[in-house]
TrEMBL record:
Start and end residues of each Beta-lactamase-related domain: 52-349
Keywords, comma-separated and alphabetical: Hydrolase, Signal
Signal peptide: 1-22
InterPro entries (alphabetical): AmpC-like, Beta-lactam-related, Beta-lactam/transpept-like
GO molecular function: hydrolase activity
Organism field: Pseudoalteromonas rubra
Protein name: Serine hydrolase
Top-level lineage group: Bacteria
Length: 375
């Protein structure tokens, strides 16, 4: 065969192969739905009694999928109620942002200014007092919890302890606590600190924290399913999950208060993500980075922050109750939000949800890019 003809055929074959590969790549890129569903199906891996739900907000579009079965045999849907755990903290941070706008609080002010009485001389160390910024970034020096110790948890006394622990008990402990580090110096995750923020907000507004969340957030976002303490009937509707070993776990929302007491559903959290992607001034304040390390990881108003592949800020928070795990990520510049929740709280459940969220975001970016090139 003539060499030039052979070269021509080779070039044509190479172009055809490249076109075929590009076509396959484009097909994969636009297959956002099937890729996302595959991740969720693989996650539950046919485990009986395990369910997983996801909501993805992409500008005006939303994608919501549910897989698996709950312990009662039902399939989850947009109205299935879950404990949110620490996702509650982002609501608390947003109320703080609103309070700043309204001149009720200041980030750098001594928090004792907002507490009644002069019984908190212990809330400072090395002449450094605690501020709201310290509480919002878990650098106050306050301990993780008051009601229970690690020994209580290991010996199975956790629920007995928290069921008897009251607001009065909390403030008694607050008067006696010794700070573990100078405020502003070290990171120490503190539910004690987050609940203190809730009590401070109640003090400055003279309203229950539950009402503040309703007035400042859920009435604006349209979240009908996001609530704190529920009636006995409503409590029976909250999904009961397991600890990862198949052991059914009790609910603990009411005790966790501003630190983790909210329950909600996919429909409501979808509305919350849309609110977090809005241009409301309090949202912008709550996304402000209050502290950042040399690695680029930081913290906002109870959000953790990092940067995506485009060097744009991503905000995230994980939530865990005794039997539920969740993940929430917000990409403000991309106008994207991702929420995943499952009725299992195993040792590695939350890290798995984070991995899924990252993959779903990549699938969505590839889909958006392919859609623009096809247009």
């Amino acid at each position: 065969m003539n060499r030039s003809i052979t070269q021509t055929i080779s070039i044509i074959l190479a172009i055809s192969l490249m076109a075929a590969l590009a076509s396959c790549k484009n097909h994969d890129a636009t297959n956002f739905e099937s890729n996302t569903k595959h991740e969720l199906i693989e996650f539950i891996d046919g485990n009986v009694g395990q369910a997983v739900s996801i909501s993805v907000v992409n500008a005006e579009n939303t994608y919501q999928y549910h897989f698996g079965t709950l312990s009662n045999g039902d399939t989850p849907n947009n109205q299935t109620i879950y404990e949110l755990g620490s996702l509650t903290k982002t609501y608390t941070g947003l109320v703080v942002a609103e309070a700043i706008l309204e001149g009720k609080v200041e980030l750098d002010k001594d928090i004792r200014h907002y507490l009644k009485g002069n019984e908190y001389k212990n809330l400072e160390l090395s002449n450094q007092y605690i501020t709201l910024q310290h509480l919002l970034t878990h650098t106050s020096g306050l301990p993780r919890d008051f009601a229970v110790s690690r020994e209580d948890i290991e010996q199975g006394r956790y629920f007995e302890k928290i069921s008897k622990y009251s607001t009065d008990d909390y403030f008694d402990d607050l008067k006696k606590v010794k700070l573990g580090s100078t405020p502003g110096e070290d990171y120490l995750y503190s539910s004690v600190g987050t609940n203190l923020v809730g009590y401070i907000l109640e003090s400055v507004y003279q309203k229950p924290f539950e009402l503040l969340v309703s007035e400042k957030i859920t009435s604006k976002s349209g979240e009908r399913g996001t609530k704190f303490r529920r009636t006995n009937f409503e409590v029976s509707e909250v999904t009961v999950g397991t600890d990862g070993n198949g052991n059914q776990m009790p609910l603990a929302s009411a005790y966790w208060f501003a630190s983790g007491g909210l329950t909600s559903d996919v429909d409501s959290v979808t509305r919350y993500m849309q609110h977090q992607l809005s241009s409301e001034p309090e949202v912008a304040i709550s996304h402000q980075i209050l502290g950042e390390s040399w690695t680029g990881h930081g913290s906002a108003f109870y959000w953790y922050t990092t940067k995506d592949d485009s060097n744009e800020i991503m905000l995230y928070q994980s939530g865990g109750s005794m039997g539920t795990s969740s993940w929430l990520a917000i990409y403000p510049s991309k106008n994207v939000g991702i929420f995943i929740v499952t009725n299992v709280a195993g040792d590695n459940t939350q890290p798995k949800l984070e991995v899924i969220s990252d993959k779903v975001f990549d699938y969505l970016m590839a889909y958006n890019k392919a859609s623009k090139s096809d247009a």
